[in-house]
Amino acid sequence: MLSRRSNHRNPQLNANGELIHLLSIDGLPAAVIQHILDTASTFLSVNDREVKKVPLLRGKSVFNLFFENSTRTRTTFEIAAKRLSADVLNLDIAKSSASKGERLLDTIASLSAMHADMFIVRHSESGAPYLIAQHCAPHVHVVNAGDGWHAHPTQGLLDMYTIRHYKRDFTQLTVAIVGDLLHSRVARSDIHALTTLGTPEVRAVGPKTLVPDSLRELGVRVCHDMAEGVKNADVIIMLRLQNERMSGGLLPSAGEFFMSFGLTPEKLALAKSDAIVMHPGPINRGVEIDSAVADGHQSVILPQVTFGIAVRMAVMSIIAGNEP
Amino acid sequence: MKILIANGRLIDPSSGLNQTGDLAIADDRIVGLATAPADFKPDHRIDASGCIVVPGLVDLAARLREPGHEYEGMLDSELKAAAAGGVTSLVCPPDTDPVLDEPGLVEMLKLRARKLSRCRLFPLGALTRQLCGETLTEMVELTAAGCVGFSQADRAIRDTQVLQRALQYAATFGYTVWIRPHDPWLGKGVAAKGAVAMRLGLSGVPVSAETVALHTLFELIRETGARVHLCRISSAAGVALVRSAKAERLPVTADVSINSLHLTDTDIGYFDSAMRLIPPLRQQRDRDALRAGLADATLDALVSDHTPVSADEKTLPFAEAEPGATGLELLLSLALKWGEDKNVGLERALAVITSEPARVLGTALGSLGSSAGRLAVGGVADVCVFDPGQRWAVDPSQLVSQGRHTPFAFESTNMELPGRVQHTLVAGHVAYSAGSTA
């Protein structure tokens, strides 16, 4: 009914279509995604040098704003920013301001007054990085490091980097994403990236409580049977199962989940022989993935982590307008 | 005081009156309709040329935030907003702080509103104490204090036996119970279940949250005979259930909000917290069914669901933002807009905000029952004069209400709304005139 203007303009692109924030992969053109991946590959060699630094963000202040705890993601952003020669400040908001009742935008305003150039934001509520991007100073850039169930775009991009590295062409692939897709920001970002890059078949695999039919709206094929879901797949992305899913009637137990949807060598054998196995980490051995698979030769879980640093370097340098 | 509203087009949906003429008011009553009495000498003359003169609007859902926000002068500002919107009677839900579960609170609220004399106020009493869904309130005493019905606002009664008994008790005295049908467990999310909620990673409220509650209510209504007003129907399936309940002649009436009538979940865009509403905005087919349901009288009334929310409570991540939008000043225009879009005719568009909501209130209006929401000689002079030709751009900073959040701001919709209120009279007293700061 209403023809909306301001609220329907993608806030992560400026009027020239350039990326100024990274908030979600949803709505990013394929060319922008490919450009980020291409830029990341040039950074991969930096990580192998003896002096692992390039001066692209020298003199810039990057603030890690983690309203929700995550040592792992925060560390990879910190490493990436430091390799770009930025000054990095880690603010563990979960333990300070938020617990004192400070409003999100007040926190942002006071940090902006410290001349931040970039905020890396992790928040438990979907959409929080949008609110920050809409209210921070025009020169400040925002990277979404995970918001609620909504998006984890750098994880999605590093997953695409990994798939491209091993499989080259997205337009021939079958990708299975297995587990709790309903509550997964990683799954949403992966799905948007895969469909944008032309992946012909993306499967969402899990029980109906975690893989509802409404996921079809995102352009995936919904499978409630693990064997059918992984059959002839080129890529299997396992998601971490959060413990809190066992309450609220979503699942009876971790053990039963593993029995039905855990990735074992037998299930993996149904996929293509050269299929790769991915996981955003940290993994729950024996819950979503068998140790034999996690440590097996088809697992690319550790290379994902390495690629993640190069991808985050690429994202930060591109949105700051200082590309290599 | 004698007032002549001259040369306007008089429309009264309840009587079918639709002609150009004068409306004469003496003290608080209408004394002449179409033509003034021969000896009528007005003290004040309002030129209504080119305008439409209708009964003052009756809004069945407006939160005034009093008691609870007296220090902000909420009652004063929100009743001014009502008058600016042409609303002369409004029903407010009991979810104030403290809750309207004591006769003294209701009397105080009515007294304060009467002193301001801008709009008639009809409070709903709490159906259960503190709205906790456990103990019944003193409904007879609350009615004596001025309550026109009993409601849980947005807090569902979890214990079905308490709900059944509340309906039985209310039915004993013929009181109407106002319920927004929603199952509290299924209804825990912040956006309608569907593609938008899935894409944005927002927790979804399925349609079954509404339909399960409706089925339960209809069973209990069959059993108890209680009269129930169903508030804020939001889904196509909900409209269909109300239609069949009415076909069965169950004693039910229903309303829809201006938000659900005009918007869908896609309007959430990139987490626009102006769209954080209860009930959540649903999909296009739901909105189409609501528009059709209001046209064919399955839904009786259109309500503003006015809920002023402070900027601090809205500039938060979507799920944390306080639900609600301002609406009193938009009700007339959005009824007219629906009328234009659906081609239902001006009379039906006006009926759903005047005579129809008055009919929902029925005998609870007491002595006003025969004339509120109507234009009748001898009836109360509650009148709205509006200019149908004037289209206006909603600028939230120019609204009278303290609530500055609306999904209909021109800045985001790029859409002008039809119809602008020029004068509002309550009991023969000018409560609002455009361009003056009355």
Overview of the molecule:
- The complex is a heterodimer of chains A (324) and B (438).
- A 5-stranded parallel β-sheet of chain A has the order 7-6-5-8-9. In chain A, strands 2-1-3-4 form a 4-stranded parallel β-sheet, with helices on both faces.
- In chain A, 35% of the residues lie in helices and 14% in strands.
- In chain A, helix 2 (71-83) packs across helix 11 (301-319) and helix 5 (153-167) packs across helix 11.
- By secondary structure, chain A is α/β, with parallel strands linked by helices.
- The longest helix of chain B is centred in the middle third of the chain and has 17 residues, at 208-224.
- In chain B, helix 2 packs parallel to helix 3 (139-145), helix 6 (208-224) runs parallel beside helix 7 and helix 7 runs parallel beside helix 9 (284-295).
- Chain B has 14 helices and 19 strands.
- Chain B is globular and about 65 Å long.
- Chain B is α/β, with parallel strands linked by helices and 438 residues long.
- In chain B, the strands form 4 sheets. In chain B, strands 1, 2, 3, 4, 5, 17, 18 and 19 form an 8-stranded mixed β-sheet that branches. In chain B, strands 9-10-11-14-15-16 form a 6-stranded parallel β-sheet, sandwiched between helices. A 3-stranded parallel β-sheet of chain B has the order 6-7-8.
- Helices cover 30% and strands 22% of the residues of chain B.
- Chain B has helices spanning 74-84, 103-116, 139-145, 160-173, 195-200, 208-224, 236-247, 258-262, 284-295, 311-314, 331-342, 346-351, 355-361, 410-413, and strands at residues 2-12, 17-26, 29-34, 44-47, 52-55, 57-59, 87-92, 120-123, 125-126, 150-151, 176-179, 191-192, 204-205, 227-230, 252-257, 301-303, 383-392, 417-426, 429-433.
- Chain B has one domain: Metal-dependent hydrolases (TIM Barrel, Alpha-Beta Barrel), CATH 3.20.20.
- The chains are: A alpha/beta (324), B alpha/beta (438).
- At the A-B interface, helix 4 of A face helix 5 and helix 14 of B.
